[in-house]
Amino acid sequence: MADSDCFESVEESSSVGRGYESDFSTRAYLARQSAKQQQSKYSTKRPFFRTQPATIQQTIASESSNQNSEQGSSKKLNILSFNCKNLKTSGNFIRKMEKEIDIFLIQEHWLFHCELNMLSEIHDNIAGSGKAVDSDDPISASFMPRGFGGVAILWNKAIDKYIKPITDGSTRIQCVELLTSKPTVIMSVYLPTKSTTDSKIIFDDCIDQLYEIVQKYKETHDIVIGGDFNEDIVKETNNSKRKIALLEFMKECKLTTNHKGPTFINTSGADISEIYYFLHSNIELQPSKKITDHPVNVSDHHPILLQMQ
């Protein structure tokens, strides 16, 4: 979400939205500092950005989750990351994509804790797990303001037995474990905008939490983090402290990503910034793709697709 978006000020200024600061952020910070000293001795350099594909596909590749099931382990797993900007208005997009996507990483579903059951009511073939801005301290249904924020992960019920929701992270981070021969921790993240004075504090806290989760699982799992980072790490003229912190996190955790072009659409309909990424530890994964001009996408964000073998 861009700083000029009128919805951002509502989200970040609301008292309900506070409380993102994690109780273990100090511990995570100290762990990061200790790890830096070790990594300075033993780490090897890896590029942040993969080579951009020759063309950006506007539609999803032909390997869909419900096709060619006879291929077994050779079938690709399609993961879509999407800032839906209100699940109640973007649910039709998810229903249209249901046959092609195995796992949806959702940001800004705008549901409150008492409404999270809606995640599993979008489609008969979809299950889900998520967090709302008030999940740590649920508010009464009779006093709910307009929705904002929230993260979730949805998945096709055909792979239900391979998905295990895990509780790590704050209400800006939703995690699941993909139980395959080499298990993968998949995270949907929504980092704060720059619209308030404490956004850098919240941003750093989220980065510390992500760092701690990666350290917890990196020896036994692959890592995939997808979502709205609200920071353009590609733009050369951007020298913000948030960008530096995010790039440092990627370096410490040996995560890579790729450049897809602008993913946020401003009020004039122009694509203006790339704030949407997949970060992952598996360098053999194909570069993610931006999906544009989908007829039922009413969000001001372009979804991005990552395919796993």
Give the low-confidence spans: 1-26, 39-73
In terms of quaternary structure, the protein is: single chain
- If you compute it from the alpha carbons, what radius of gyration comes out, rounded to the nearest whole angstrom? 18 Å
Number of strands: 15
The biggest beta sheet is recorded as: 6 strands, mixed
**Class based on secondary structure composition and strand pairing:** alpha+beta
Shape: globular
Strand content: 15-25%
Distance between the termini: 30 Å
Order of helices and strands: HHEEHEEEEEEHEHEEEEEE
Mean pLDDT: 82
- Enumerate the strands of the largest sheet in spatial order, edge to edge or round the barrel: 4-5-3-2-15-14
> Helicity, in percent?
10-25%
Number of helices: 5
Protein name: Endonuclease/exonuclease/phosphatase domain-containing protein
InterPro entries: Endo/exonu/phosph_ase_sf (IPR036691), Endo/exonuclease/phosphatase (IPR005135)
Pfam family, one: Exo_endo_phos_2
GO molecular function: catalytic activity
